[in-house]
Design a protein that fits this description.
There is one protein chain. The chain is mainly alpha-helical. Helix content is about 50%, strand content about 5%. It has a 5-stranded parallel β-sheet, with helices on both faces. Helix 21 links the parallel strand 4 (about 395-405) and strand 5. It is elongated and about 70 Å long.
């Protein structure tokens, strides 16, 4: 296989390195004929932190140049797939000071710090800034790292001392974190940029689906804020990145319910795809979740025992404990009402115990059967009506509907649901087959996390956009001569 392929696959550890060094003493700094990179650079870019650590200890040089004149630090920050901040930390321990800003004209003179800024990789930015990376170095267009910083968070990370002071001010008022998130959501994704907006936040959030649930629960928000801060420092996932963290938190503010199909999932590996997708959704939506909460699991044609508030590991075990069984037809709307809406929404409404808004992820590979054709849409409309009658925003329960498999009838059903003007503001129907997209991203956990959180965030964004549009908003079913308009209740 060779040392360079072993480096890319993370196999350069322990005795494997010893065998290579025994046969060729200087092999750790030899360049790959195909890529022009050293084993250390190949392992670093592939994200194998253990291999990087052991290679450095065995004599690999962090400042050695590739065939194109790039050192391992530059390659890692520019091209690294995962574990970037950990690998950068390892490299900086042995990296000569004069090599920290090394770059090439082919990179438009962008330094490792500049690439970290462009990726909004806050932890890597902090490591490089603390190690003495230049804040005044310029790229080929004369721009410094601060000049290309996309937002305030990145600018603060460039100055660890200033960032520490800012964080102290922020944590002094935990409630402001939620306020900022709410403002970000209500502005349809535009991050609040001025103090006046935050000072007058009440007028913006008084109709928010979140205000009623969390305004008087500082303990919940405090724990969520603590977990969000930890996620922000986790470089193994993009969920803590500046563009995704608010979305991750907004998704997490909802009680997650995953509603799975069963009877027709035997074909084409659909059952396994559904199980893996459901487990991944549970894993990412519990990252900032306070310990008292969890994910609910439901099946259209089966019962899932003890499945109300599952942690990610409990959810995975529950999914692994289920198996495909033919249990009759797909009454997706009927069971949505009886298995989810009645116990998790209507009963708590009657008892004044509805603690959180809900986000229901529905995975299906077939169209409804053994029920009225419009039963599913009617169930969602009824849910909105009951919420507003109880004094809650109808968007307190939102839905994501996704297809697994290539059934044409299922695709037609999903399209019709997605175009229904009466539920448009509380449901998002994915346009791609869920299993196809999952297969595309499965090999890259980073992109998979990003895709899933963007998908789960879609109905939240839609509600914000419809609400912000006000009277006159035009839904997809509008035609040039017959426009259906309206705003969210």
């Amino acid at each position: 296989m060779g040392i360079h392929e072993d480096a890319r696959q993370g196999k350069l550890v322990g005795d494997t390195i010893t065998r290579y060094l025994r046969d060729v003493p200087g092999i750790l700094n030899q360049l790959d004929p195909s890529t022009g990179r050293s084993p250390l650079a190949s392992a670093a870019v592939a994200g194998h932190a253990d291999s990087v650590e052991q290679l450095l200890k065995r004599g690999a040089k962090p400042d050695a140049l590739s065939r194109d004149g790039e050192n391992t630090l530059l390659l890692t920050v520019r091209d690294g797939i995962r574990n970037r901040s950990r690998i950068v930390q390892l490299l900086l321990i042995q990296m000569p000071k004069d090599a920290i800003d090394a770059t090439t004209s082919a990179n438009d003179n962008k330094t490792p710090l500049m690439y970290a800024v462009l990726r909004s990789d806050l932890q890597t930015i902090r490591l490089l800034a603390t190690a003495g990376a230049s804040l005044t170095a310029t790229d080929s267009e004369g721009r410094t790292a601060k000049d290309i910083a996309p937002n305030k968070l990145v600018q603060l990370a460039l100055d660890p001392k200033l960032e520490k002071e800012a964080r102290a001010v922020q944590t002094a008022n935990v409630g402001s974190i939620l306020n900022t998130i709410l403002a970000w959501e209500i502005n349809a994704g535009e991050t609040p940029s001025n103090i006046e907006f935050l000072d007058n936040l009440d007028q913006y959030i008084q109709d928010s689906p979140y205000e009623r649930f969390f305004k008087d629960d500082p303990t919940y928000i405090q724990e969520l804020a603590k977990n969000a801060t930890e996620l922000q420092r986790d470089t193994s996932t993009p969920l803590g990145q500046p563009d995704l963290l608010p979305k991750t938190i907004l998704v997490t503010l909802h009680q997650q319910v995953i509603y799975c199909g069963t009877s027709s999932m035997k074909r084409e590996g659909r059952w396994q795809s559904q199980a893996e997708l459901a487990k991944k959704i549970a894993a990412i939506t519990t990252r900032v979740l306070p310990a008292r909460d969890g994910v609910a699991l439901r099946f259209i044609n089966q019962e899932a025992p003890n499945s109300e508030r599952l942690s990610a590991s409990e959810f995975a075990r529950a999914m692994d404990g289920m198996s495909w069984q033919y249990r009759g037809d797909t009454a997706i709307g009927t069971y949505l009402r009886s298995k989810i809406l009645e116990p998790l929404v209507y009963r708590p409404l009657q008892q004044s115990t509805l603690a959180r808004p809900l986000l229901i992820s529905i995975i299906t590979d077939g169209m409804p059967s053994q029920e009225k054709a419009d039963a599913f849409v009617e169930a969602i409309k009824e849910c909105g009506d009951k919420l507003t009658q109880a004094g809650y925003p109808r968007a307190s329960v939102k839905f994501v509907l996704s297809q697994i498999g290539n059934g044409k009838a299922a695709a037609a059903f999903l399209q019709a649901v997605g175009e229904d003007k009466d539920i448009y503001d509380v449901i998002f129907v994915t346009t791609d087959r869920f299993d196809d997209k999952f297969a595309t991203f499965k090999a890259n956990e980073w992109d998979l996390d990003r895709w899933l959180i963007e998908t789960l965030y879609a109905p939240i964004k839609r509600y914000a956009e419809v609400k912000g549009a006000g009277p006159g908003v035009c839904y997809p079913v509008c035609t040039a001569t017959n426009q259906t308009t309206g705003a969210a209740a």
